[in-house]
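Appendix B. Extra example for self-study. Work through it before the problem class; the solution is given directly after the inputs so you can check yourself.
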Amino acid sequence: MSADIGLWGVPLAILAGAIRVSIPFLFVALGECLTERSGRINLGLEGTLVFGAMAGYAISYETGNPFVGVAGAALAGSLFGLFHGWICKFRGVNDIAMGIAMMLLGLGLAFYFGKGYIQPVAPDLPAIPLGNWSDIPQIRAALQINILFFVGAGLALAMWWMFRQTRVGLVIRVVGDSADAARAMGMNIDRVRLLATAAGGALTGVGGAYLSLAYPGSWNEGISSGQGLMAVALVIFARWSPIACFWAALLFGGAGALGPALQSVGVSDGYYLFYAAPYVLTLALLILTSSPERALRGAPGELSITK
Amino acid sequence: MADQALHGRRLPVRAAALETLLPRIEAVAIPAIGLIGGFAIFAVFLLSQGKSPVEFATLVWKAGYSSAFSLQNTFSRVAPLLFAALCVALPARLGLVVIGGEGAIVLGGLGAGVAGVALAGLPSVMGFAGMVIAAMGLAGLWMGLVGVMRVKRGVNETIASLLMAYIAIALFNHFVETVFRDPASLNKPSTAPLPDGLRVGDMPVITTHWGLIVGICACIACWVLIERTKLGFAARLAGDSARAAKVQGLPVDRLIIGFMALGGALAGLAGLFEVAAVHGSANASLIAGYGYTGILVSFLARHNPLAIIPVAILLGGIEASSGLIQRRMDLPDATNLVLQGMIFVAILFSETLTGRLKLLQPGTWGRT
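Solution. Structure tokens for the complete assembly:
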């Protein structure tokens, strides 16, 4: 009786998948949100994400502790962020182009150092079984929610509170909205942006570690195909609000879960098209929510991508 | 100082020559410094890995340039790089950063492969014309769409072009494995092989396919378009300041869409030659990353179509030697990507030297 829930498996799998797939989106988006709020853009997060995935996996394998892996990935991500933040402060260095360069470099370094870790199996991050009340195995499986989901949700709330209520949040917002005003108030713009970019990189590294240590849960060179870059679009769609980033990440996760969910019930026609759903969704949302006028509502005034 | 100033006054011709010459030297010197810096960082990286940079350079020379065979290997990679770089360089002159050339290449290859098989009954000249139209049309339309999104909705072209590339690759895989799949292609889904009459052969003397010379001609034509025509002048103005160009009454929106579409159409030609001269049919081998290397080529060339030619030969040679380097030096294939990333970062960083190299400022040499 409880074994077969038929086609209900599809929406359930999509919901479960949405949570599972959304986590890297959530971390990258929160990181990019923080960086962009300080007036800098980091398009290189795709490279940081993949390097974080490699570093997290390798460290988890070497130490036997996935949480050490996550910390290592965060550290590696923050180094990438620090470098991007440092190099972009020089006059004449374009942060968008540098992001593309950092994407290439991050991917290159991740594949270079990750070559030896494609075969071995590293310990995974644990999930919390929230579905033990149910007899239906699909529901039990769907409610195996990874611990990082709750960390990410908490972070979104904390960041929202930080931007609204704290001095640090105010400083970041002023630096991001008007460099002139920040300078007049005696703030160190370069340092704020450097730290915001480093923190953004650290969060992205955690997102990467989730990819290799939880879902899909292994390291290979095809582990990310644009999640890092889609998260940048997601931040625009979420209008630079951490709470909106959370919901948008879930939406993107749902789109990303569409392909695997349909495949799990035996629909394999149009496999590639279902897997392209997140890209189409991202593009559609960008088209719908962008505006030909120069300023986007909620956009930090100093951001080069919206100028 | 007084002496120099005197010289300047006495020789206005020399001063004027310096004022035109020095910025040109600077435009070459700064990326050259960046390139050397990138190689230097990479050399340090290799040393830290216990590998010899000298051996690396020797192998690049050996496998990329030293013999007719290795040059042929290099040139066959240069051809797609030229087109892929133009797809970045043309929009860049309008101030747009486009990174989705890979999608246009893949769609161009699909269009050429499908059209070639469909038009097999026609005389080969017409069949080939059909392939060119399909490849350039499809890829041009694809990139033109990104331009339309930019103009009509203000969508960021960098992100949109990459998303479009992912979608293009998904469509390519879908069509190659379903509608247009040749049932005879078992292990590697491909479109039906092109008829012999529609294959592109090798050029005389240098045994590389014609795509190389077409690519070089395309670079020259794009240079003329940008530097020597009214349209190019308008594009450069719009690249400096879209707002000012609009005030001047220039059709900035149409320029954006047109340049994006032209860049896409040229990238489509890369796909066409890969299919018609190298693979013989459209299959996953087309997704080889030329679109991404093309970004680096264009930035290294400072988006100057003529400079793209030597830069593509340099990076093409390094790519061509990647196999030998992997085997001889026991390095992973990603080494090339590490090198490209380091060069890219160094090149962008070198931009900060603009106007700071004292030797290259006209003022250093007397009256300005």
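Self-check: Residues 9-37 of chain A form the longest helix (29 residues). If your reasoning did not lead you there, revisit section 3.
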